[in-house]
């Protein structure tokens, strides 16, 4: 019997997997079986950490706002600020408020004093 040469489809699939794992180290970038395991693990971690990143940034914004609000001029808390913002129907999200707090604290103090009146 003559020898049958395999097609290129399996090689093309393995090449795509190797391109994904090009930055991995050691056998994780060379051995096909290990590459597939590491690819699966990397994609699971990426999916999980996208949600975690959103939580971490929200915590960071809240922390920045609370630290600025509890400064020398204003002796209130973050929760009072958010409560009064919603009561006055000023829809500023935490990211924008944190950016204002970092770049221009006086502006945040003015917003806070207007809300408290």
From TrEMBL:
Q: Name one GO biological process term.
A: translation
Q: Please give the SUPFAM superfamilies that the UniProt record associates with this protein.
A: Ribosomal protein L20 (SSF74731)
- Which superkingdom heads the taxonomic lineage of this protein's source? Eukaryota
Pull one GO CC term from this UniProt entry. Answer: ribonucleoprotein complex
Cell compartments where the protein resides: Plastid, Chloroplast
Record-linked InterPro entries: Ribosomal_bL20 (IPR005813), RIBOSOMAL_L20_CS (IPR049946), Ribosomal_protein_bL20_C (IPR035566)
* Any GO molecular function: rRNA binding
A Pfam match: Ribosomal_L20
Keyword Acetylation part of the UniProt annotation:
no
Alphabetically ordered keywords of this record: Chloroplast, Plastid, Ribonucleoprotein, Ribosomal protein, RNA-binding, rRNA-binding
User: Can you tell me which family this protein belongs to?
Assistant: Belongs to the bacterial ribosomal protein bL20 family.
NCBIfam families to which the protein is assigned, alphabetical: rplT_bact
| Function (record text) | Binds directly to 23S ribosomal RNA and is necessary for the in vitro assembly process of the 50S ribosomal subunit. It is not involved in the protein synthesizing functions of that subunit.
What protein am I looking at? Large ribosomal subunit protein bL20c
UniProt organism field: Plicosepalus acaciae
